[in-house]
Write a structure and sequence with these properties.
Layout lengths: L1 H22 L5 E6 L4 H16 L3 E6 L11 E6 L3 H9 L13 E6 L5 E6 L2 H18 L6 E4 L24 H14 L8
Parallel strand pairs: 1-2, 1-3, 3-5
Antiparallel strand pairs: 4-5, 4-6
Helix pairs in contact: 2-4
């Protein structure tokens, strides 16, 4: 019995050490280079920082103007495609400059020449933000293991579609008439109508 207790204590000790070593795992340092004067760029950088923190990475936020400096860790660059310094750095890393990026469009690039670099390039400030948000989502799913070479042009004519039954003649879904009737009063009241069926 005494031997059994010693074995259990030994096993518990080994598991405790293994668990504590996995919790103190070495975190990778990643630098995010972005224009801190642009709110869209700062927002995208904060989302990427959060995604990297979820992956146990240490994040260094750096100014886009310091991109030309030697940086010994993986980099994430958020910039507008028209920035000449960014174009020069991308070409030096062996990347391709996206062409034809319009309003709210973005391109993602990955280069690995000297160090792993992810590039989110926007046609404008909003495109830069959308590219950064897509990169944050990619990091949440793939960590720093993914390779990206894509270009996205959003559908600009955005709007809100309210799927409300406003009239008995135009039900928005099929099925029980009760569902439509249950919401009809509220829909007319919100839009300034009388709330009564005609």
């Amino acid at each position: 019995m005494d031997q059994w207790n010693r074995g259990r204590r030994w096993l518990f000790g080994v598991l405790l050490v293994a668990l504590s070593n996995s919790m103190i795992a070495h975190s990778e340092v990643v630098g995010i280079f972005f224009d801190q004067t642009l709110p869209q760029s700062s927002f995208a950088a904060s989302e990427i920082q959060e995604a990297l923190a979820d992956r146990n990475c240490t994040v260094e936020l750096r100014s886009l103007s310091s991109l030309s400096e030697v940086y010994p860790h993986p980099k994430i660059i958020l910039a507008r495609v028209g920035d000449d310094a960014v174009k020069k750095a991308l070409l030096a890393q062996g990347g391709q400059i996206p062409d034809g990026l319009g309003e709210q469009a973005y391109a993602l690039r990955t280069t690995t020449n000297e160090m792993l670099c992810y590039w989110a390039l926007g046609g404008d400030a909003n495109g830069l933000m959308y590219g950064g948000l897509q990169l944050a989502e990619n990091i949440r799913f793939n960590g720093l293991a993914g390779t990206y070479h894509s270009q996205e042009e959003p559908y600009i004519n955005r709007g809100v579609k309210y799927n409300l039954p406003l009239d008995l003649r135009l039900p928005t879904y099929h099925g029980s008439k009760f569902k439509t009737d249950a919401h009809l009063h509220d829909a007319w009241r919100c839009s300034g109508g009388s709330g009564e069926e005609r």
